[in-house]
Every structure is written in structure tokens, then in C-alpha cells.
Design a protein that fits this description.
The chain is mainly β and 328 residues long. 5% of the residues lie in helices and 62% in strands. The protein contains 2 helices and 19 strands. Strands 1, 2, 3, 4, 5, 6, 7, 8, 9, 10 and 11 form an 11-stranded antiparallel sheet that branches. Strands 12-13-14-15-16-17-18-19 form an 8-stranded antiparallel barrel. A hairpin with a 3-residue loop joins strand 6 and strand 7. It starts with 18 loop residues before the first strand and ends with a helix.
Length: 328
């Protein structure tokens, strides 16, 4: 089970040179077809930190079409991971551990700034706890069960939250009021031989939301989702493990644009969901070893409409081999 202390750097990594701690926030302004990502990757034992801010508006098929991008490498690592300010203008403050976060950002060249408050709707989901992740066998090998490489085989949590605040982009101000996900990870990370993974949220306001993490592979030149590695559903005050899911998608330039999902939880409840992308972008500066194809989807289920974020993340070597094997 995730503890309050998991919001900070983890002392057990003190002797591991490539010990890595990350946090990732997504937000959106659906009425303006805007999706934004904030990523921080810290290597405290090396004293360095990477951060990337990426904002897309509408359908962006190429990296140069995005509305705003700010990747910053080799900044000094903060002393703490709950309250810090980076050289790129990102300021993060944890107001209540695992529950209330505040993100402030003002880009150094002045065309983007935001102030966002993240209020968690749940206790973070521990992907490595078999009491929470029903797909993880008792006493099983976590690396094998998650299947996503060393970035996922160590500490990792995911949570849904209500994100409010404001975004100023190229002189225009937007109100932010959305429900979407954030996550944290920690442990040794080599960034080598990274496989494909989808990091997918589906939300319908504060009362119903889903998270899925699934593998990605190439079959006959197409991207295929699966297997399901872990996931959860938040249904009112109840949170349950997802035990089965299928995802199919149509794509353009590797970006998912239409999607159909079938999700089943540990109690046998099932949902059929469809979605259409209203904003897309290749996120080429997520980390140097990966590319993320991100989309803000308009999801529909049983008369409900919601907006949330899908990130299909590929290690560059994994994607190159998969595409080359198909002669693509």
C-alpha cells in the first residue's frame, strides 16, 4: 500500500547510481481542444533532473505543430520531491501528501504559464500490491507481471484527481477544470530496451473513472494493445481492480484517433466505451529514450460524456525494431 512517505525521494536508493524518481501530471481544456503534460524525472544520486512541458491544441500530427514545448535537461536535482522549484520555471508543492498538489509554471521565454491544483479522488493505486492489483500473483515476480521494464518494476502508483486552475498560452487565458490522472515512480532505471506501454485514463467527471496500463506490440504493421498489466475503476467512493480489458484504436501517424474499450472489474462489472480524439501530439521530448503519442479523447458510455488522456509510449529501439520487422 502506498504511504505518505512515497511522495518524497526514497532513501533505499542512496547507493544506486541510476536511481530514478518521476512524477507526471496531465491536464486539459476540452472546450478549446487543449491537452497538456508535465513530466519530471530526477536522478538524485547523480544530482540532475529532467523536466518536460508539452501542450497541444487540436490535431497535431508532427512535433512542430504543437502549441508549446519546453524540455530541459541536466538541471540541478531538487533536495526534496514534494516541494521544489526547477530552473525551467516549474514549481511543485505538495499541500497534503498524496492528496493535494499545486503546480505552477512560467516558461522562461514567456509564452506559457499555468497554475494548477490537483485534488486526488482516491488513495493512490499500488501497482505492486496483489491486494490492489488482482493481476499480480501473491509472491510473484513484479518485473515479469508488469512487463514494462525497470521503469515499472519498482515503486509505482497512479491516481485520479480533479484539476483546476488557469493556463495562459500565447497571451490567451483558459480556465482549467478537468478530471484526469497523475503518477509517481521510483527505482533503478536504465532507459535501455524500453518496451511499448499505453498509459490510459477514461473519466466521466468525479464519479466514474478508469485507468489501464497495457502492453503495445506490432502485428502486421498495426499497433496492438495488450496484454493488460494492471488497472482500476473508481466508481463513486469505491475503487476496484480491473481484471480484463480490450482496447482497439484507429491511428494517424502513430497517434490514436478513435478507440473502443471493453473493461471488466474484479466483481464482474463491465463497461463498453468509445472515444474520438479532439487533440493529439507526438511528445518527442518525454525522455530521450522514448516517444509518447498523446491524445485527448472525448469518451462516451451509456449516455455519459467525458474527456481524458491516452499516452502510447514507445521505447525508440522497440519501435524501430517493430516497424522494421513489418517493412514499415
Amino acid at each position: 500500500m502506498i504511504q505518505d512517505s512515497d511522495g518524497e525521494f526514497h532513501p533505499e536508493g542512496g547507493s544506486v547510481p541510476n536511481w530514478t524518481e518521476t512524477q507526471f501530471l496531465i491536464f486539459s481544456v476540452p472546450e478549446a481542444a487543449i491537452t497538456g503534460c508535465v513530466y519530471v524525472l530526477a536522478r538524485p544520486n547523480l544530482g540532475i533532473c529532467h523536466s518536460s512541458v508539452n501542450i497541444a491544441q487540436g490535431i497535431c500530427l508532427q512535433p512542430w505543430e504543437i502549441a508549446y514545448g519546453d524540455p530541459q535537461m541536466h538541471m540541478p536535482c531538487p533536495q526534496r520531491f514534494s516541494n521544489f522549484r526547477l530552473w525551467n520555471g516549474l514549481d511543485v508543492e505538495v499541500l497534503a501528501p498524496l492528496r493535494e498538489y499545486q503546480y505552477r509554471y512560467e516558461g522562461v521565454e514567456g509564452s506559457c504559464r499555468f497554475e494548477l491544483n490537483f485534488s486526488a479522488l482516491m488513495h493512490p493505486f499500488d501497482t505492486h500490491d496483489p491486494e490492489e492489483n488482482r493481476l499480480l500473483p501473491q509472491g510473484g515476480d513484479v518485473a515479469e507481471a508488469t512487463g514494462f521494464g525497470d521503469g515499472w518494476a519498482n515503486g509505482h502508483f497512479d491516481t485520479l484527481g480533479h484539476i483546476t486552475g488557469s493556463l495562459v498560452l500565447h497571451g490567451r487565458e483558459y480556465a482549467v477544470d478537468c478530471v484526469d490522472g497523475m503518477d509517481r515512480s521510483w527505482g533503478p532505471r536504465s532507459e535501455a530496451n524500453v518496451p511499448g506501454v499505453t498509459w490510459l485514463h477514461v473519466t466521466f467527471g468525479r464519479e466514474l473513472g478508469f485507468h489501464l496500463a497495457m502492453g503495445l506490440s506490432f502485428v502486421s504493421g498495426q499497433v496492438v494493445y495488450g496484454p493488460l498489466r494492471f488497472g482500476y475503476v473508481v466508481d463513486g467512493a469505491d475503487r476496484r481492480s480491473v481484471v480484463a480489458a480490450t482496447v482497439t484504436a484507429q491511428r494517424s501517424y502513430m497517434l490514436p484517433t478513435r478507440m473502443a474499450l471493453e473493461i471488466t472489474d474484479e466483481h464482474g462489472h463491465s463497461w463498453s466505451i468509445t472515444g474520438t480524439a479532439i487533440a493529439t501530439a507526438p511528445w518527442n521530448h518525454f525522455t530521450p529514450s522514448n516517444v509518447a503519442y498523446v491524445s485527448l479523447f472525448r469518451f462516451e458510455h451509456a449516455g455519459k460524456v467525458g474527456y481524458s488522456h491516452v499516452a502510447d509510449v514507445f521505447g525508440l529501439n522497440f519501435m524501430a525494431k517493430g516497424m522494421a520487422a513489418q517493412g514499415t
